[in-house]
Amino acid sequence: MNKDENLREEIDRLQGEIEQLKFEKKEQEEEKILRALRWLNLGEAKAKAYLYLVKKGQATAEQVAQGADLYPTTAREVLTKMAESHIVQREKLDTEGAGRKPFLYTAIPPSELIRKRAHEIEQTLSTLLRLEFLRKEGEIKFKTPLLPIQVEIKSTRKKSENPSE
User: Fold this and answer.
1) Nearest 10 degrees: CA dihedral of 155, 55, 116, 118?
2) Contacts 24+ apart (CB under 8 A), 158-164
3) What span, in angstroms and rounded, lies between the C-alpha atoms of 68 and 45?
4) For the chain, give me the number of helices (H) and strands (E)?
5) How far apart (Å, rounded) are the C-alpha atoms in residues 48 and 69?
6) pLDDT at 89
7) Which CATH class is domain 25-108?
8) Hey, which of 9, 48, 85, 120 has its CA 20 to 30 A from 105?
C-alpha cells in the first residue's frame, strides 16, 4: 500500500468512529429524556410514545408502535390513555374506503406537559401537608397548611433585549 491508500483508510476509520460516537451520544440523550419522562410519572411505554410523537409531530398508532418499539396493542392502549389525560391530542383521519378510520396523534408541547405535571405535584404535596397533625389529649387534629405548595418553573435562558437575537 502506498501512502495515499494508508491515509484514505485512516480517514475512513476515523469517520466511522465519529459516526459511532454521534450515534452513542444520540442514544445517551434519548435515554436522559426517557428517564426524565419516567420521572414525570409517564411510565416506559408512554414515555417512548410521547418522545416519538414530539420528534415526528404527528403519527398514527401503527407508526408510533413501529417508531417507539412498542407492540401495536400497547401503543393503542397507551395513546388512548394519553389522549384521555390530555397529554396527546387525537383526530380521526379522513381516509378512503371502508373500515375504521385511524386516529392521528399529536403530543402536547413539553413545556405544557411540565406545567401540567407541576400542577399535579402541587396538589399532591399540598394534600400530604394536610396530614401533618398534632396529638392532643388522645385525638388527632389535622393542621391545614397556611399556603398551598406551589412549584415555580423559570427559564434558565437569559432574555435578550433584542428580539431578533
Assistant:
1) -50
2) none
3) 8
4) 5, 5
5) 8
6) 93
7) mainly alpha
8) 120
C-alpha cell at 35: 428517564
- What are the φ/ψ torsions at residue 98 (nearest 5 degrees)? -85, 170
By CB atoms closer than 10 A (0-12, 13-18, 19+), residue 66 is middle
Residue with cell 401495536: 72
Q: Are 118 and 129 in contact (CB under 8 A)?
A: no
pTM: 0.64
Query: Over 80: is that where the pLDDT of 92 sits?
Result: yes
> Start-end ranges of CATH 1.10.10.10 in the chain?
25-108
- Is 161's pLDDT higher than 70? no
Count Cβ atoms below 10 Å from residue 67 Cβ, excluding itself: 17
At residue 40, what are phi and psi to the nearest 5 degrees? -80, 10
Q: CA distances (Å), 130 to each of 25, 140, 141, 150, in order?
A: 44, 12, 10, 15
pLDDT, tens only, 12-69: 888 887 777 777 677 777 778 777 777 777 788 998 999 899 999 999 999 999 999 9
**C-alpha grid cell, residue 152:** 415555580
Please give the backbone phi and psi of residue 21, each rounded to the nearest 5 degrees, phi first: -65, -40
In one letter, which amino acid is 8? Answer: R
